[in-house]
Amino acid sequence: MLSIKNLHASINDKEILKGINLEIKAGEVHAIMGPNGSGKSTLSSVLAGREDYEVTQGEVNFDGKDLLELNPEDRAREGLFLAFQYPIEIPGVSNINFLKTAISEKREYLGQEPATAKEFLAMVKEKSALVELDAKLASRSVNEGFSGGEKKRNEIFQMAMLEPKLAILDETDSGLDIDALRIVANGVNLLKSPKNATVVITHYQRLLDYIVPDFVHVLYNGRIVKSGTKELALELEEKGYDWIKEEVNA
Ligand code: ADP
Ligand code: MG
Ligand code: MG
Question: Which residues belong to any copy of the ABC transporter domain (predicted)?
Fold first, then answer.
C-alpha cells in the first residue's frame, strides 16, 4: 500500500529526513515512535504534501501511484488521511458541510456516483455513534470551541466518514484523558480492515495498550533506526530512548 524508499526531506535547507525506508501493507497497523525532534511530524507532513517541506531524494509509492507527484488534495482523494497533533479550526464551516464536500470531491475524483443525502445522513449517524461523538458536534463549525478531547474524537469521526486506505495519526493521543484515548483507539480498531492500514505516531507507549501495532519503528535523527513488534514499544517504555541513541551513535 505504501512504500517509502530512501526519503530525504528538508525545511529551510535543513535536512530533517535522512533516508527513510518503510513498507506498509494493507491490513497492517504500524507505530512510529521516537524522541522529540526526530522527524515524526515532518514525515507525516511530507506524506500529506505540505508545501514548506522539500523532498530532495527518494520515492514514495501509494497504492500504485507516485505519491510525491500528487497535490495534497489528490493525495487525500486517493485515500490518505492525516490526523494532526493540533487539529485546525474552520470557523463558519460546519463539520457536516466540510465532510459532504470532501466526500463528493473524492467520489468525483474516483469516478464514483455522488452519495445521496439519505446515504450521507445514514453514514453520519453510523460513524458518529462509532466514535461516540455528540450529534450536535457534528453540525457545529469544524473544531471551533471544541475541547481537546472533542477535537480528537471529531478527527476520528472525520476519518471514519472519509474511509481512508491509509490513516496516519500524528500524536493524536497527546492531551487525551483515558476515556478519550479509549474512544480514539476504539474508533481506530473498529475501522481496521484487511483493505486499509494505519500508522500511529506516538511519543508514548500508552496508546499502544489500546491500538496494538503489528510493527513498531523507532525514528531517530531522520532515520528509522530500529523496527520490531509490539514488544519493542514495551522495551522503550521501560528503558527510554538512550540505549537506541547509544546504539546509533556507537
Ligand atoms: P517530531 O515530530 O519527531 O517531534 P518534527 O518532525 O516536528 O519532530 O521536527 C524534526 C526537526 O525538524 C526538529 O529538529 C525541528 O526543530 C525541525 N523543524 C520542524 N519544523 C521546522 C521548521 N518549520 N523550520 C525549521 N526546522 C523545523
Ligand atoms: Mg514533537
Ligand atoms: Mg511531532
Answer: 2-246
CA distance 3 to 30: 13
Asked if residue 32 has its Cβ within 6 Å of ligand 1, the reply is: no
The CATH code of the domain that includes 207 is 3.40.50.300
Query: Domain limits at 138?
Result: 3-249
**One-letter amino acid for residue 152 of the chain:** K
Spatial distance between the Cα atoms of 60 and 78, rounded to a whole number of angstroms: 14
Q: What is the rounded CA–CA span in Å between residue 49 and residue 155?
A: 19
pLDDT band of 128, cuts 50, 70, 90: confident
Question: Which residues have their alpha-adjacent CB atom under 5 A from ion ligand 3?
Answer: 40-41
Whose alpha carbon is nearest atom 22 of ligand 1?
Answer: 11
Q: How close are the terminal C-alpha atoms of the chain, in Å? A: 34
In this predicted model, what pLDDT tens digit does every residue of 150-181 receive, in sequence order? 777 888 888 889 899 999 988 766 667 777 77
Is 17 close to ligand 1, i.e. is its CB under 6 Å away? no
Q: How many domains does the chain divide into?
A: 1
